[in-house]
Amino acid sequence: MTRLPLPAARSVFRDDEPVIQSRPLLPGATSPRFGDITDCWDFNDVVRRPANQDRASRRVWLHGLAPDWHLLGRELSMIWFNPRHPALLARGIHLRATPYDVNTVRLRMLYLRTLAAFGADQHLPDDITLWSDEDFHRYVDHHHTPGTTTQVEPITVIRALHRFRTVLACGGRETDPWPGQSTHDILNISRDAPLKTPVVKPETWFPLVRAAWTYIDTFGPDILKALDRWKAIQAGFHDGHIDEIHRRFATWLDEPASRVPVRPTQNEQWAVNWSLLNALLGRDPRKFNFFPTHTKSGRARRRTVEELAETGRVQVGLLPQLAEVERPDGTRGPWHESLQPQQLHFEALALRNACYCLVVALSIMRDSEIREISKGAVVEYFGTTAVKSTKEKLDPDLPTKHWWIVDQAARAIETVEQLSPHPELAFGSVPGYGPETLFDSGDALVDFIRRVNEFRHVTGLDEIPPQHVAPHMFRRTMAMLTRDFPGSEIAVGMQLKHVATRALANRTTAGYMAKSPAWAKHLDDAITERRFDRLKELFAADSRGEAIGFGPGADRMREAFAAVRQKAEELRVTGQAQRGDIRVEHSLLRRTRFSIRFGKINHCTMNDDDPSGAKCIEDAIVPEGHRGPLLDRCQPSRCANSILGPEHLPIWKAERASLNRLRADTSLPKNRRAHLDAQLHEVNLMIKKADQ
Q: What is the pTM of this model?
């Protein structure tokens, strides 16, 4: 009997179905069809493209695949693009409603092509459903780098053969190559592993942020002014009869305020910038030269201009004067040698990159969110300066969110708006490029660092040590820096915009806030110095006879201050110190190592090496390795280490008034009144310290 060939497998998806059905298309756009047998599905100008992604991210490539593999790739793409497709629901496949991003599907199709190439190289069956579990294991082992997540998406693609088997034309696989195992287990990745995103080291962070702010605050006004000047010059180009240029040249020569534009030469001399002068007179230097050397009239005009320059009527570049800076060699001068039209493009790029650097460093916004900032997005939100932008990650609705920002970040956004030729986006290209020209955020940071280091001999900026930096590293660094401030875990949790029941419930959020050894000493030193500054303020107030605090802790502090003044006077009497030099007291004060922690409702003078009298650690289980007070067990009214400062007294009196108002309610239950009485007693004990 002759066996007839089996009919070709048919997909559950119709050939005329659009690939994009679960998200809005751009106006007038048409989606590729499922039946389009092509090497590439191009979704540019079909669906919205994030501002920080290029056009390649909107292309799903299917080239190099055999017909069966090509059909498999199109089917998987349809599933991920349309997770609630009726054909899926009819076959019992219920996925999340949010369709996957085009870039995610693009990467998964890349891994499908890699999988096909692996099969051909290993001489595996053309039908992937005939591969054994060991074949897939070998593929992952061959491509996986231990400790990384590079094979997470390839495993997702492989498992899709089993997960979507009731939909795929090839029939899929009846078994999962890794039954009962999570992707983390397969790749041996610990779920409790620390976040691998590194911080920007302090030796890089400080000069980089300072350089960005200097570009914005000091150099930026000159760059913007020069751009406006060059734009006005170009707007005045005259393409008519040459007689008009002759008239303008004569007028320019007679005008006392006219200056000959000059530029530096290689031998540290100055030469007339004939191209710029040509433009100043109204001719586009790319089309016409008013000062040719091959004609007698051109040479005569050159001599006239050179004679004028010899009288000192010259101007370097487009502006008569630039902001001056202190340079590494000790000299002072303009921050740019010669701001000519040819340099404007590079300085505009540097200014744009500086604005991006400052915002990504100080805002805790993601790169995608910064790049979506539109012009006019700086607003006031709940009485604080904020910026509006689109939140994309993990949110299909693309809502507009507000991020609170500091004034410097707001200034950076307002500056970059003036540079961007894009009709909507603040962080776009710069003058000279088309409005739709994109830039890579990582490259912007690298280029800015390179330019700062290359020209620091002129700009006076500090050298930035070499370190690989990326946008997400700044987010990680700022989250880490803010974690030690009161209430910061809430603020950082809100800024990081991770969905969590509480600020620290999300491991990623907590990981971003984790301390870094690179900053440990710097932060410790900074906190110590700030404490000493506050201690000097208290010392000065006590020396003036002012009240600095109440309670046993304050008494010990006054005794320490009195001992410092007495010792300083002894040194002056013996001639070991100069009279009137307050630095003597400050030096002695630092050596006393008086321990104090400043707080909002009281100060704590607990000595870590001798914590006697500290109520917070009485009958408490102190965590291993912990030093210092247990702040959540603080009992300021009963602790001998507590100081009630004059600035704290109004807070406690307001609390007493509030408690008395609550107690005045005659309908209060007995247990509630007893609780209020206990609170009021503690408050009165605290206030009594001041009365005594």
A: 0.71
